[in-house]
Amino acid sequence: MNEKVLGHFLRYKRTHADRAKFDVPDIKHRTPGLTRDEVATLANVSTDWYIRIEQGRTGVSASADVLRDLCKTLKLNQAETNYIFNLAEEIPPTTDQSTSYDSVQRFVDEQMPNPAFALDQNLTVVAANKMYTAIYGNFLAESALRRHLVFRTFNDPHFRAVMVDWENYASALTAKFRQLYSRTPDSKVLFEVYSAVKDDPVFKQTWDQLKVEELGEERLLLNVPNAYELYLIETFLKLLGAGDIIGVQLPGDEETRKKLGEMVND
Protein backbone atom coordinates (compact mmCIF):
# COMPACT_ATOMS: atom_id res chain seq x y z
CA MET A 1 0.00 0.00 0.00
CA ASN A 2 1.36 3.43 -0.97
CA GLU A 3 0.25 5.40 2.09
CA LYS A 4 2.18 8.61 1.34
CA VAL A 5 0.89 9.00 -2.23
CA LEU A 6 -2.65 8.11 -1.13
CA GLY A 7 -2.56 10.69 1.66
CA HIS A 8 -1.10 13.35 -0.63
CA PHE A 9 -3.85 12.80 -3.20
CA LEU A 10 -6.62 13.01 -0.59
CA ARG A 11 -5.11 16.19 0.84
CA TYR A 12 -4.86 17.76 -2.61
CA LYS A 13 -8.49 16.97 -3.45
CA ARG A 14 -9.64 18.23 -0.04
CA THR A 15 -7.77 21.54 -0.21
CA HIS A 16 -8.84 22.18 -3.81
CA ALA A 17 -12.51 21.35 -3.27
CA ASP A 18 -15.12 24.00 -4.12
CA ARG A 19 -16.96 24.60 -0.84
CA ALA A 20 -20.06 25.76 -2.71
CA LYS A 21 -20.60 22.19 -3.92
CA PHE A 22 -20.56 20.64 -0.44
CA ASP A 23 -22.99 20.58 2.46
CA VAL A 24 -20.82 22.69 4.75
CA PRO A 25 -21.32 26.12 6.38
CA ASP A 26 -20.71 29.06 4.05
CA ILE A 27 -17.96 30.73 6.08
CA LYS A 28 -14.65 32.24 5.08
CA HIS A 29 -11.53 30.17 5.72
CA ARG A 30 -7.94 31.19 5.78
CA THR A 31 -7.16 28.26 3.52
CA PRO A 32 -9.17 27.07 0.51
CA GLY A 33 -11.13 23.85 0.28
CA LEU A 34 -12.54 21.73 3.07
CA THR A 35 -11.16 21.18 6.54
CA ARG A 36 -10.20 17.72 7.75
CA ASP A 37 -13.04 17.90 10.28
CA GLU A 38 -15.54 18.59 7.51
CA VAL A 39 -14.35 15.70 5.35
CA ALA A 40 -14.38 13.33 8.32
CA THR A 41 -17.91 14.40 9.29
CA LEU A 42 -19.26 14.05 5.75
CA ALA A 43 -17.62 10.62 5.40
CA ASN A 44 -18.79 9.42 8.84
CA VAL A 45 -15.29 8.68 10.13
CA SER A 46 -13.42 10.15 13.08
CA THR A 47 -11.25 13.19 12.42
CA ASP A 48 -8.27 11.48 14.04
CA TRP A 49 -8.66 8.47 11.72
CA TYR A 50 -8.92 10.66 8.64
CA ILE A 51 -5.84 12.66 9.67
CA ARG A 52 -3.86 9.43 10.00
CA ILE A 53 -4.91 8.37 6.49
CA GLU A 54 -4.14 11.77 4.97
CA GLN A 55 -0.76 11.93 6.69
CA GLY A 56 0.09 8.59 5.14
CA ARG A 57 1.12 6.94 8.37
CA THR A 58 2.63 3.51 7.83
CA GLY A 59 0.38 0.66 8.89
CA VAL A 60 -2.79 2.74 8.81
CA SER A 61 -5.10 1.29 6.18
CA ALA A 62 -8.67 2.17 5.29
CA SER A 63 -11.25 -0.45 4.42
CA ALA A 64 -12.91 -0.51 1.02
CA ASP A 65 -16.08 0.92 2.59
CA VAL A 66 -14.18 3.85 4.12
CA LEU A 67 -12.38 4.53 0.85
CA ARG A 68 -15.68 4.47 -1.01
CA ASP A 69 -17.20 6.95 1.46
CA LEU A 70 -14.19 9.26 1.19
CA CYS A 71 -14.31 9.19 -2.61
CA LYS A 72 -18.03 9.95 -2.54
CA THR A 73 -17.53 12.72 0.02
CA LEU A 74 -14.83 14.41 -2.07
CA LYS A 75 -16.95 13.94 -5.22
CA LEU A 76 -14.19 12.08 -7.05
CA ASN A 77 -14.89 10.82 -10.56
CA GLN A 78 -14.51 7.17 -11.53
CA ALA A 79 -10.89 7.52 -12.67
CA GLU A 80 -9.93 9.25 -9.42
CA THR A 81 -11.79 6.64 -7.39
CA ASN A 82 -9.97 3.84 -9.22
CA TYR A 83 -6.67 5.61 -8.50
CA ILE A 84 -7.45 5.79 -4.79
CA PHE A 85 -8.37 2.10 -4.64
CA ASN A 86 -5.29 1.10 -6.62
CA LEU A 87 -3.02 2.99 -4.22
CA ALA A 88 -4.72 1.24 -1.31
CA GLU A 89 -4.38 -2.13 -3.09
CA GLU A 90 -8.14 -2.60 -3.05
CA ILE A 91 -10.45 -3.61 -5.90
CA PRO A 92 -12.10 -0.46 -7.30
CA PRO A 93 -15.89 -0.37 -7.06
CA THR A 94 -17.76 -0.62 -10.32
CA THR A 95 -20.11 2.10 -11.42
CA ASP A 96 -23.85 1.72 -11.91
CA GLN A 97 -23.89 0.35 -15.43
CA SER A 98 -27.66 0.61 -15.98
CA THR A 99 -27.27 3.57 -18.33
CA SER A 100 -24.57 1.86 -20.38
CA TYR A 101 -26.28 -1.47 -21.04
CA ASP A 102 -27.86 -0.13 -24.22
CA SER A 103 -24.41 0.46 -25.69
CA VAL A 104 -23.24 -2.94 -24.46
CA GLN A 105 -26.25 -4.57 -26.13
CA ARG A 106 -25.47 -2.76 -29.38
CA PHE A 107 -21.89 -4.00 -29.21
CA VAL A 108 -22.84 -7.66 -28.79
CA ASP A 109 -25.49 -7.31 -31.52
CA GLU A 110 -22.77 -6.10 -33.89
CA GLN A 111 -20.92 -9.40 -33.41
CA MET A 112 -23.59 -11.33 -35.35
CA PRO A 113 -23.59 -13.99 -36.64
CA ASN A 114 -21.09 -14.93 -33.92
CA PRO A 115 -22.56 -15.67 -30.47
CA ALA A 116 -21.71 -12.83 -28.09
CA PHE A 117 -22.70 -11.88 -24.55
CA ALA A 118 -21.81 -9.48 -21.75
CA LEU A 119 -21.03 -10.30 -18.12
CA ASP A 120 -20.93 -7.98 -15.14
CA GLN A 121 -18.11 -8.14 -12.58
CA ASN A 122 -19.81 -11.13 -10.89
CA LEU A 123 -20.11 -13.14 -14.15
CA THR A 124 -23.84 -12.52 -14.42
CA VAL A 125 -25.04 -12.33 -18.03
CA VAL A 126 -26.45 -8.83 -18.61
CA ALA A 127 -26.73 -8.81 -22.42
CA ALA A 128 -26.58 -11.27 -25.32
CA ASN A 129 -27.21 -11.26 -29.06
CA LYS A 130 -29.74 -13.39 -30.90
CA MET A 131 -27.22 -16.06 -31.91
CA TYR A 132 -26.15 -16.59 -28.30
CA THR A 133 -29.76 -16.98 -27.09
CA ALA A 134 -30.60 -19.21 -30.07
CA ILE A 135 -27.84 -21.61 -29.02
CA TYR A 136 -27.93 -21.39 -25.22
CA GLY A 137 -31.54 -20.35 -24.59
CA ASN A 138 -33.20 -17.01 -23.96
CA PHE A 139 -32.88 -16.45 -20.21
CA LEU A 140 -32.27 -12.69 -20.07
CA ALA A 141 -35.60 -12.02 -18.36
CA GLU A 142 -34.81 -14.42 -15.50
CA SER A 143 -33.43 -13.53 -12.06
CA ALA A 144 -29.82 -12.46 -11.55
CA LEU A 145 -28.99 -15.83 -9.98
CA ARG A 146 -30.39 -17.78 -12.92
CA ARG A 147 -28.47 -15.52 -15.32
CA HIS A 148 -25.17 -16.19 -13.58
CA LEU A 149 -22.78 -18.06 -15.87
CA VAL A 150 -21.70 -20.53 -13.19
CA PHE A 151 -25.26 -21.20 -12.03
CA ARG A 152 -26.45 -21.85 -15.59
CA THR A 153 -23.52 -24.09 -16.38
CA PHE A 154 -24.42 -26.44 -13.55
CA ASN A 155 -28.20 -26.06 -13.37
CA ASP A 156 -29.47 -25.58 -16.93
CA PRO A 157 -30.15 -28.95 -18.63
CA HIS A 158 -30.14 -27.29 -22.06
CA PHE A 159 -26.68 -25.82 -21.46
CA ARG A 160 -25.37 -29.23 -20.44
CA ALA A 161 -26.89 -30.87 -23.51
CA VAL A 162 -25.45 -28.33 -25.94
CA MET A 163 -21.91 -28.43 -24.54
CA VAL A 164 -20.29 -31.64 -25.88
CA ASP A 165 -17.37 -31.52 -23.43
CA TRP A 166 -19.45 -30.11 -20.60
CA GLU A 167 -17.45 -31.66 -17.77
CA ASN A 168 -14.14 -30.07 -18.81
CA TYR A 169 -15.84 -26.73 -19.48
CA ALA A 170 -17.57 -26.79 -16.09
CA SER A 171 -14.34 -27.71 -14.33
CA ALA A 172 -12.44 -24.84 -15.98
CA LEU A 173 -15.23 -22.41 -15.12
CA THR A 174 -15.10 -23.54 -11.49
CA ALA A 175 -11.40 -22.66 -11.38
CA LYS A 176 -12.21 -19.21 -12.80
CA PHE A 177 -14.98 -18.79 -10.24
CA ARG A 178 -12.52 -19.53 -7.41
CA GLN A 179 -10.23 -16.77 -8.71
CA LEU A 180 -13.14 -14.32 -8.87
CA TYR A 181 -14.32 -15.26 -5.38
CA SER A 182 -10.83 -14.64 -3.97
CA ARG A 183 -11.06 -11.01 -5.09
CA THR A 184 -14.43 -10.37 -3.41
CA PRO A 185 -14.78 -12.98 -0.63
CA ASP A 186 -17.56 -11.01 1.09
CA SER A 187 -19.77 -10.89 -2.01
CA LYS A 188 -23.33 -11.97 -1.23
CA VAL A 189 -23.92 -12.58 -4.93
CA LEU A 190 -21.02 -15.01 -5.26
CA PHE A 191 -21.93 -16.76 -2.01
CA GLU A 192 -25.45 -17.33 -3.33
CA VAL A 193 -24.02 -18.84 -6.52
CA TYR A 194 -21.58 -20.99 -4.55
CA SER A 195 -24.38 -22.27 -2.31
CA ALA A 196 -26.42 -23.23 -5.39
CA VAL A 197 -23.67 -25.27 -7.09
CA LYS A 198 -21.38 -26.51 -4.31
CA ASP A 199 -22.92 -29.99 -4.18
CA ASP A 200 -22.46 -30.73 -7.88
CA PRO A 201 -19.84 -33.53 -8.16
CA VAL A 202 -17.81 -31.78 -10.90
CA PHE A 203 -17.84 -28.46 -9.07
CA LYS A 204 -16.95 -30.08 -5.75
CA GLN A 205 -14.07 -32.09 -7.20
CA THR A 206 -12.52 -29.07 -8.92
CA TRP A 207 -13.10 -26.83 -5.90
CA ASP A 208 -11.52 -29.32 -3.53
CA GLN A 209 -8.48 -29.58 -5.83
CA LEU A 210 -7.95 -25.81 -5.39
CA LYS A 211 -7.67 -25.22 -9.13
CA VAL A 212 -7.43 -21.56 -10.14
CA GLU A 213 -7.66 -19.98 -13.60
CA GLU A 214 -8.21 -16.57 -15.18
CA LEU A 215 -10.82 -15.86 -17.83
CA GLY A 216 -9.22 -16.66 -21.16
CA GLU A 217 -9.63 -18.35 -24.49
CA GLU A 218 -11.71 -21.51 -24.52
CA ARG A 219 -12.34 -23.94 -27.38
CA LEU A 220 -15.93 -25.15 -27.43
CA LEU A 221 -17.58 -28.01 -29.28
CA LEU A 222 -21.36 -27.63 -29.34
CA ASN A 223 -24.12 -29.97 -30.43
CA VAL A 224 -26.89 -27.57 -31.44
CA PRO A 225 -30.27 -28.97 -32.56
CA ASN A 226 -30.79 -28.45 -36.31
CA ALA A 227 -27.25 -27.10 -36.72
CA TYR A 228 -25.17 -30.22 -36.11
CA GLU A 229 -21.82 -29.53 -34.43
CA LEU A 230 -20.32 -26.07 -34.01
CA TYR A 231 -16.65 -25.52 -33.21
CA LEU A 232 -16.23 -22.14 -31.51
CA ILE A 233 -13.32 -20.27 -29.96
CA GLU A 234 -14.46 -18.16 -27.03
CA THR A 235 -12.50 -15.05 -26.08
CA PHE A 236 -13.13 -12.25 -23.58
CA LEU A 237 -12.71 -8.49 -23.75
CA LYS A 238 -12.76 -6.13 -20.74
CA LEU A 239 -14.52 -2.82 -21.31
CA LEU A 240 -12.40 0.13 -20.22
CA GLY A 241 -13.86 2.16 -17.36
CA ALA A 242 -16.58 -0.38 -16.64
CA GLY A 243 -17.07 -3.68 -14.88
CA ASP A 244 -18.47 -5.44 -17.93
CA ILE A 245 -16.75 -8.28 -19.78
CA ILE A 246 -17.66 -9.11 -23.36
CA GLY A 247 -17.54 -12.74 -24.49
CA VAL A 248 -17.39 -13.48 -28.22
CA GLN A 249 -17.45 -16.99 -29.69
CA LEU A 250 -15.73 -17.01 -33.08
CA PRO A 251 -15.95 -19.87 -35.60
CA GLY A 252 -13.06 -22.28 -35.21
CA ASP A 253 -13.34 -23.64 -38.74
CA GLU A 254 -14.92 -22.79 -42.08
CA GLU A 255 -17.75 -25.28 -41.62
CA THR A 256 -18.83 -23.56 -38.40
CA ARG A 257 -18.62 -20.15 -40.08
CA LYS A 258 -20.95 -21.41 -42.80
CA LYS A 259 -23.41 -22.92 -40.32
CA LEU A 260 -23.61 -19.71 -38.28
CA GLY A 261 -24.47 -17.83 -41.45
CA GLU A 262 -27.18 -20.34 -42.26
CA MET A 263 -28.64 -20.08 -38.75
CA VAL A 264 -29.02 -16.30 -39.15
CA ASN A 265 -31.08 -16.80 -42.29
CA ASP A 266 -33.33 -19.49 -40.81
Model description:
InterPro entries: Cro/C1-type_HTH, Lambda_DNA-bd_dom_sf, MLTR_LBD. This is Putative transcriptional regulator. One of its GO terms (molecular function) is DNA binding. The protein is an alpha+beta fold and about 270 residues long. The chain has two domains: about 5-85, Orthogonal Bundle (434 Repressor (Amino-terminal Domain)); about 100-265, Beta-Lactamase (2-Layer Sandwich). The chain has 13 helices and five strands. It has a five-stranded antiparallel sheet with strand order 2-1-5-4-3. Helix 2 (about 35-45) packs across helix 3, helix 2 packs across helix 4 (about 65-75) and helix 4 (about 65-75) packs antiparallel against helix 5. The longest helix has 18 residues, at about 165-185.
